[in-house]
């Protein structure tokens, strides 16, 4: 269980790591002051590719659900993300967005009926504090439009995570197709607004095309497929806390490519972010083990019925064919009796407490071989003496 949670978390965290490069790509490769265009190009091509490859369209109520999820996870979120990236330093934008787990925690309590636990609150506080130490500096400036856009993006993403967890995925629809629907819906929502509000740039360079291709194929198509898989397999808050890896990746990329220095405070922030992520993962694995243990043994587990005894040398399992005697007569070799059936002249057998496999599945533990085929020693017979035999 712990290994499975660790693998799911390790794969899911790749999505926010990729998204951490958005700030670098936006400022270095994309045309300036084109947030709507960047959002539309990031979502629409990859969404159309996955939708066409899946050869499926939403059915019934999933049409409006996909529109809602596409707006929250993709369309409106992308737009607000790029507005924040253009109006704020990358680190400040990341800090504003780091409040997302708090919204996920509250929405999960309302919609998913999950209890708010102490470790969840501490993980949110620790992660947000770590992001602040990572990205804030004396030169960091605040812009009202950028801050509002960052907070709005955090609310959109939190709502999208919780609703995706709440609604799940349509039966028979693959993960890539489900991802493509949301990307296409989000891209189609903002494409008309892009044409009306910004228009197309007069000139597009090869550098711009490379930036758009990276954001569409890697930053959206692949990253969101991994992200939605994580939402299905992990608790909503755990997925949201993994998003703290995004500003951590942005800081590391800034150090490597933009020659931005790293301080001891930033190092402490990185440690706090990693600690918050590990706390979420370990707590999730522990709660999963507790829940699994509370569910009891899996079907097929055998045991002694309450109040019953097992004779020495006899291994009896529910559903196994056993040798029994007809009422008032001697035991007959090879006569099967159903497990848990009551004998007419004897005490009623107590039903086992756990679900047991059907008779055709065979006994879980084969009975020991007898000395003679079809006979069992009298000392080992579980049959009780009947009143007729006592007389």
Layout: helices, strands, pairs:
Layout: H1 2-12, H2 14-19, H3 22-28, H4 35-54, H5 62-87, H6 90-97, H7 100-112, H8 118-135, H9 144-167, H10 175-197, H11 206-233, H12 236-242, H13 245-257, H14 264-294, H15 387-390
Describe the fold and architecture.
The chain is mainly alpha-helical and 391 residues long. It is built from 15 helices and no strands. The chain has helices at residues 2-12, 14-19, 22-28, 35-54, 62-87, 90-97, 100-112, 118-135, 144-167, 175-197, 206-233, 236-242, 245-257, 264-294, 387-390.
Summed up, what is this model?
Helices cover 61% and strands 0% of the residues. Helix 5 (62-87) packs across helix 10 (175-197) and helix 7 (100-112) runs antiparallel to helix 12 (236-242). The longest helix has 31 residues, at 264-294.
Q: Characteristics of this structure?
A:
391 residues, mainly alpha, 15 helices, 61% helix, 0% strand, disordered C terminus
């Amino acid at each position: 269980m712990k290994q499975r949670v660790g693998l799911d978390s390790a794969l899911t965290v790749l999505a926010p790591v990729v998204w951490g490069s958005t700030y670098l790509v936006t400022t270095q490769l994309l045309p300036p002051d084109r947030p709507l265009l960047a959002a539309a190009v990031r979502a629409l091509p990859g969404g159309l590719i996955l939708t066409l490859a899946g050869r499926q369209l939403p059915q019934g109520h999933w049409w409006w659900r996909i529109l809602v999820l596409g707006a929250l996870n993709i369309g409106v979120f992308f737009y607000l993300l790029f507005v924040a990236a253009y109006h704020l330093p990358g680190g400040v934008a990341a800090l504003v967005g780091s409040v997302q787990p708090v919204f996920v925690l509250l929405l999960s309590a309302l919609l998913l009926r999950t209890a708010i636990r102490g470790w969840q609150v501490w993980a949110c506080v620790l992660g947000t504090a770590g992001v602040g130490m990572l990205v804030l500096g004396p030169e960091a400036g605040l812009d009202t439009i950028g801050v509002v856009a960052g907070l709005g993006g955090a609310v959109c993403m939190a709502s999208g995570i919780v609703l995706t967890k709440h609604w799940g995925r349509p039966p028979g629809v693959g993960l890539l197709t489900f991802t493509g629907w949301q990307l296409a819906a989000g891209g189609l929502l903002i494409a008309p607004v892009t044409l009306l509000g910004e228009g197309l740039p007069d000139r597009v360079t090869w550098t711009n095309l490379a930036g758009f291709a990276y954001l569409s194929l890697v930053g959206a198509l692949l990253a969101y497929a991994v992200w939605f898989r994580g939402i299905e397999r992990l608790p909503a808050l755990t997925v949201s806390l993994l998003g703290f890896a995004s500003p951590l990746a942005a800081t590391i990329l800034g150090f490597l490519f933009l020659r931005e220095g790293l301080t001891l405070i930033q190092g402490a922030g990185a440690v706090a972010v990693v600690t918050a992520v590990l706390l979420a993962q370990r707590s999730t694995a522990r709660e999963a083990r507790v829940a699994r243990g509370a569910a009891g043994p899996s079907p097929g587990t055998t045991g002694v019925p309450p109040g019953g005894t097992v004779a020495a040398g006899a291994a009896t399992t529910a559903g196994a064919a056993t040798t029994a005697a007809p009422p008032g007569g001697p035991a007959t070799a090879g006569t099967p009796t159903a497990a848990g059936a009551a004998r007419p002249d004897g005490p009623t057998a107590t039903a086992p407490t756990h679900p047991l496999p059907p008779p055709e599945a065979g006994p879980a533990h084969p009975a020991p071989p007898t000395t003679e085929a079809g006979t069992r020693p009298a000392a080992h017979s579980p049959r009780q003496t009947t009143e007729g035999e006592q007389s």
